[in-house]
Specification:
This protein has 138 residues and is an all-alpha fold. 56% of the residues lie in helices and 0% in strands. It has a domain at 5-72 and 104-127. It has helices at 5-10, 12-31, 33-42, 49-63, 75-88, 105-116. It is globular, with a radius of gyration of 18 Å.
Length: 138
């Protein structure tokens, strides 16, 4: 999540609430991929059920397991991202990204609340589901 330092200083409770709700949703979809696909299908997507379930499975594979807890960025990966952005993306070349730009505090606070609610925030036991892609994604 990207916000200005001023916004973070003035709206920490909003950031934590947003993260708590978002991460709760990712945890729910990890544990209930078929239900999440039903929600999407009910909203009228252009892709069919098997394609949506395949996508949900692939997204889950990008997120889980989350060793540090879902939504908590690793400092080394952050440093790598900044290095690539400031040396390989013309719009960011030479831009000074202050150390204070990186924080896991909001996500860690949100995770503490979720864990207090009994939710598994790391998904250590998560495994892909088997998805049969049907012709046309239906």
């Amino acid at each position: 999540m990207w916000v200005t330092e001023d916004y973070a200083a003035e709206n920490g409770d909003v950031i934590e609430a947003f993260l708590r709700a978002s991460l709760r949703g990712w945890i729910f979809c990890r544990d209930n991929p078929e239900t999440c696909v039903e929600y999407v299908l009910d909203a009228g997507p252009t892709l069919g059920e098997s394609h949506q379930l395949w996508q949900m499975n692939e997204v889950n594979a990008l997120i889980w397991p989350s060793t540090n807890g879902v939504g908590v960025m690793d400092q080394g990966l952050w440093d790598q991202t900044i290095e690539i952005a400031t040396t390989q993306i013309p719009e960011f070349e030479g831009v000074d990204i202050p150390e204070s730009s990186f924080t896991t505090g909001f996500a860690e606070a949100a995770l503490a609340d979720l864990e207090a609610d009994g939710l598994d925030t790391t998904g250590a036991g998560w495994e892909r589901i088997e998805v049969e892609l049907r012709e046309g994604g239906e």
